[in-house]
Structures are given as C-alpha cells and as structure tokens.
UniProtKB/TrEMBL annotation:
The keyword Phosphoprotein applies. It holds the Pfam family Hydrolase. GO terms for molecular function: beta-phosphoglucomutase activity; magnesium ion binding. Transmembrane segments: none annotated. Its EC number is 5.4.2.6. The record marks S113, K144 as: Important for catalytic activity and assists the phosphoryl transfer reaction to Asp8 by balancing charge and orienting the reacting groups. This is Beta-phosphoglucomutase. Keywords: Carbohydrate metabolism, Isomerase, Magnesium, Metal-binding, Phosphoprotein. Mg(2+) binds at D8, D10, E168, D169. Binds 2 magnesium ions per subunit. Belongs to the HAD-like hydrolase superfamily. CbbY/CbbZ/Gph/YieH family. The lineage of its organism: Bacteria, Pseudomonadati, Bacteroidota, Flavobacteriia, Flavobacteriales.
Length: 218
C-alpha cells in the first residue's frame, strides 16, 4: 500500500523554538513582565494568535483589538529577523538522512505545521525540494490537536490517513496525528510524548531499518 510521511517543522526539522522564545520574551519585557523558557514550552505547536493570548494572560494584560493586532505583527517581525539569518547548519541532526532515504524510495513527503512562516524557513535551510506538499498555518483553520492539518496533507499526498506516518515534537501534534488515525512518531521526551506510537529522542536515534520496517507494514 502507498505510504506517506508528514513532518512537523518547528522542533522536528529545525529548532526555531529558541527564536520564537526570544521574540515573545522581547514583547513580554516591553509590556513589563518576564517570560521564561519553561513557559515557552506551552507555545510549541500552538498558533501565533493563541500564543499571544496565553502571553497576555501570563502578564495579566487586557489588550484592545488594535493592540493585539499590533503585537502580533511586532512579534512576527522580530521572529523574521532571526529566520532571515538561518541556513542549513540549523537543520536538526540526521533529518536529511531520513528525507534522503524517503526520496530515494519515492515515498511522498509533506510538511504539516501550524507556522505561517514554514515555506521561507524550509527555503532558507535548503530543504524545500524534498517536500511534495506544504500544509501550514496559511491553509488550516483548526489548530492541532485537531487532525485537520494532517488530513489535508494526506489528501494532498494521495495517501490514506492510516497509511501516513507523522513526526511531531508537541503533545498537541501527537494528538492531532492520533486523531487523524495516523501512526505518530514522537521526537523528544518520551515521558511528555507518551501518547505517541513510537518515541525517539531525536533523528540520530532513528535507524533507516526502522523507516524501512514502517514502509513494509501491511
Ligand atoms: C509552530 C510552533 C509554534 C508557533 C506556530 C506558529 O507550531 O511550534 O511555537 O507559534 O508554529 O508559527 P508562526 O511562524 O506562524 O508564528
Ligand atoms: Mg513542533
């Protein structure tokens, strides 16, 4: 049966969480409060709008619609300054090894991300050519754990959801994959990502035999 692979972006392919953090922290500080790296964990896999809502909750700030919109733009402009400087050195270890293998086997590959900056980031690090389809924050309306992003990706790849494998680093992302009835592969802390079908600390732990085994599943 035809199989498909879907990759989350932030935290799976590149470590952009640190840039999101710096941009959110700058905004928080400007608004007069602290924002810690620990709190930033809650932002993983979460849309920009929802992140700002949580941030303002942390700071106890009630924003007007106009302020809210301004801060959304400001945060993204700061984030884009970091993205601008990204290159292939920021690809997480051994990610290209797996992409290369899938390409060689002619397995379709999609990106499934909440980010509206997904395409420029893939372009910057030089991985865009590996992806047959990009489903990102510009094309989905329901956030993970809703399965929408992955179901659209499967549809675009022309693969049945149950024959798709999803790499994710966020709890909401694993839940989205499970809700789509796909096979979920957690990248990160296996205690946090306990709901995943498989767990790996990072791609250096993924053996190509494992990918081969997945491709051979009924
Ligand atoms: C990913 C990240 C989140 C981020 C979201 C939106 O899911 O893990 O931390 O908030 O994308 O990113 P964007 O680039 O559209 O602000
Ligand atoms: Mg992620």
């Amino acid at each position: 049966k035809k199989k498909g692979f879907i990759f989350d972006l932030d935290g799976v392919i590149v470590d952009t969480a640190k840039y999101h953090y710096l941009a959110w922290k700058k905004l928080a500080n400007e608004l007069g409060f602290e924002f810690t790296e620990e709190q930033n964990e809650m932002f993983k896999g979460v849309s920009r709008k929802r992140c700002l809502e949580i941030l303002l909750d942390i700071g106890g700030i009630e924003a007007t619609q106009k302020e809210f919109d301004t801060w959304m733009i400001e945060k993204n402009e700061d984030y884009l300054e970091y993205i601008e400087k990204m290159d292939a050195s920021e690809i997480l270890p051994d990610v290209p090894k797996v992409l290369e293998y899938l390409k060689a086997k002619k397995v379709p590959i999609a990106l499934g991300s909440a980010s509206k900056n997904a395409k420029p980031i893939l372009e910057k690090v030089g991985l865009l050519p590996y992806f047959d389809n990009i489903v990102d924050g510009n094309s989905v309306s329901k956030a993970k754990p809703d399965p929408e992003v992955f179901l659209i990706a499967a549809d675009k790849l022309g693969v049945m959801p149950k024959d798709c494998f999803v790499f994710e680093d966020a709890v909401a992302g694993i839940q989205a994959a499970n809700n789509a009835e796909m096979t979920s592969i957690g990248i990160g802390d296996s205690d946090i990502l306990a709901e995943a079908d498989y767990n790996f600390k990072d791609f250096t732990e993924i053996d190509l035999d494992f990918i081969k085994k997945l491709l051979q599943l009924k």
